[in-house]
Inverse folding.
C-alpha cells in the first residue's frame, strides 16, 4: 500500500485544498508539492485523526471499519459495491458541484477526506485495483467498532430440515456401473438411461449425480483413457479397494482437481466463447467458507449463499471481472453478464457445489422441508472430517455379499457384492 504522502501525490491541488478544508487543517502553501508537504504531517497528528473519526457519519465509519477488518484494503469493485460509488469528475466539475459537501456514498465521503486511496497492487490473480487506507494512517487507526462475524449465514429451522437426505456412498456403485457400461461400449442413450435411475424416487434433489459429472470425476482420477475406455490396471485397483478407501480416493481427486469444472456442469447455464474460469480457486474458496461453520448444526442454504454475496462475492472472479464470461440462461436465453446476475451464476455455483459434489462424495448431508421440495439446509456428514483430511471414513459397510442365482437363471447382485 501507499503512504498518505504518496497517495496525495496522485491528486491535484484542488483535491488537496478540499482535504484541508474537511480536516480543518491550515494549508500554508500555494503549489501542489508544498501543499502536500504542509498537509501530510497535520493529517497524521493523532488528536486531529481522532477528532476526524469521531465526527465521521455512521456510514463512513462502517465503511472504514470494513477496510480495517481486512488489513486496510479491499478490491475496489467489492468496496464500492458495499459502500457506494465515487463519482469520476475532473477539477472543473468538482469545483462546480463540490461533491465533498454532499457525498453520494460512504466511499465518496472517505475519498474526499483522504482516508482512502485507490490504486493497483499485485494480487494472486495479477494486478488488481484496490481501495486502501494509507499505511501511516492505518497504523494510527483504532480497532473496528464491531467485530467481524466469521460465520456465514444462520442455522436452519426445524421446518427447513424436516426431511433429511443423508450422505451415502452410492457413487461407488454408480462408478462401477458406468465403467462397466464404457467397457461394453454402451451408447450415450443407454448410459443416459442408466443415469436416470441414480436419483432416489423417495427424495428429490435438483442436482443428482449424472453420467457426465461422474465421467469427469473418474477421468480426473485417471480411470478413463483418451478413448473413453476404462484404464485396466487403474480400474482394477479402484474396484478392489475397500469402499471407504475408494470413497476417500474420489474425494481427494475432486478436491484437488483443476480439470473437474463445477461451473460448466450447472444444467441451467449455457457457455459460449473461449474464456476460462479457475475451478480449483472457486472450490477452495467454497471449502474455506464451509470451514467457518459449526460441525454438527444444520445450516440454512440460502442465508449461507447470501452472506457470501455480501462479504466475498468475487471468490471465483479474477479482479472482480463480471463482463468477460459469456454465459446464458438456458430458460430465458438471456446473457448473464454483470454483477446484477451474481445469484444466477456465482450463487448457482455455490448451490451446485453443495448440493452436487459435496453431497455425492459424502461430505454433506442435505435436508428439505418436504420430500418433493429442493434442499434448504445442509450439515457436515459423519464422514466429513475424515474425507476432508483425505483419509477413509469409518462406518461404511464392507462388500461382503455374494451373487444370487435363481433356478430360472436370473442373477441378482446385491449392492454389497464386491464391485470387482
Amino acid at each position: 500500500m501507499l503512504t498518505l504522502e504518496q497517495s496525495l501525490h496522485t491528486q491535484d491541488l484542488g483535491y488537496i485544498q478540499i482535504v484541508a478544508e474537511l480536516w480543518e487543517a491550515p494549508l500554508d502553501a500555494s503549489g501542489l508539492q508544498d501543499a502536500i508537504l504542509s498537509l501530510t504531517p497535520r493529517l497524521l497528528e493523532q488528536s486531529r485523526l481522532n477528532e476526524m473519526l469521531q465526527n465521521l457519519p455512521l456510514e463512513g465509519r462502517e465503511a472504514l471499519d470494513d477496510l480495517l477488518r481486512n488489513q486496510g484494503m479491499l478490491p475496489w469493485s467489492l468496496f464500492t459495491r458495499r459502500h457506494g460509488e465515487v463519482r469520476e469528475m475532473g477539477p472543473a466539475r468538482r469545483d462546480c458541484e463540490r461533491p465533498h459537501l454532499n457525498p453520494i456514498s460512504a466511499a465518496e465521503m472517505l475519498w474526499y477526506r483522504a482516508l482512502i486511496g485507490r490504486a493497483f497492487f499485485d494480487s494472486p490473480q495479477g494486478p488488481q485495483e484496490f481501495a486502501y487506507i494509507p499505511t501511516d494512517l492505518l497504523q494510527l487507526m483504532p480497532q473496528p467498532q464491531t467485530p467481524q462475524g466469521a460465520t456465514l449465514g444462520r442455522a436452519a429451522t426445524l421446518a427447513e430440515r424436516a426431511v433429511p437426505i443423508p450422505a451415502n456412498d452410492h457413487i461407488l456403485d454408480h462408478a462401477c456401473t458406468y465403467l462397466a457400461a464404457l467397457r461394453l461400449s454402451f451408447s450415450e442413450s443407454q448410459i443416459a438411461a442408466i443415469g436416470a435411475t441414480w436419483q432416489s424416487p423417495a427424495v428429490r434433489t435438483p442436482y443428482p449425480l449424472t453420467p457426465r459429472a461422474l465421467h469427469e470425476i473418474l477421468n480426473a482420477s485417471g480411470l478413463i483413457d483418451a478413448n473413453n475406455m476404462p484404464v485396466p490396471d487403474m480400474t482394477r485397483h479402484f474396484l478392489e479397494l475397500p469402499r471407504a478407501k475408494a470413497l476417500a480416493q474420489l474425494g481427494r481427486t475432486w478436491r484437488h482437481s483443476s480439470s473437474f469444472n463445477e461451473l460448466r456442469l450447472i444444467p441451467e447455464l449455457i457457455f459460449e466463447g473461449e474464456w476460462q474460469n479457475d475451478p480449483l480457486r472457486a472450490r477452495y474458496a467454497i471449502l474455506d467458507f464451509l470451514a467457518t461453520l459449526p460441525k454438527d448444526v444444520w445450516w440454512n442454504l440460502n442465508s449461507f449463499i447470501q452472506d457470501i454475496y455480501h462479504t466475498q462475492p468475487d471468490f471465483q472472479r479474477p479482479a472482480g471481472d463480471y463482463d468477460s464470461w459469456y454465459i446464458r440462461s438456458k430458460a430465458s436465453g438471456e446473457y448473464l453478464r454483470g454483477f446484477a446476475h451474481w445469484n444466477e451464476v456465482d450463487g448457482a455455483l455455490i448451490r451446485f457445489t453443495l448440493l452436487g459434489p459435496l453431497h455425492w462424495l459424502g461430505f454433506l448431508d442435505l435436508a428439505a422441508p418436504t420430500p418433493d421440495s429442493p434442499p434448504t439446509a445442509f450439515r457436515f456428514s459423519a464422514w466429513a472430517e475424515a474425507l476432508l483430511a483425505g483419509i477413509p471414513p469409518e462406518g461404511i459397510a464392507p462388500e461382503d455379499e455374494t451373487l444370487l442365482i435363481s433356478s430360472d437363471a436370473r442373477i441378482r447382485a446385491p449392492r454389497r457384492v464386491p464391485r470387482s
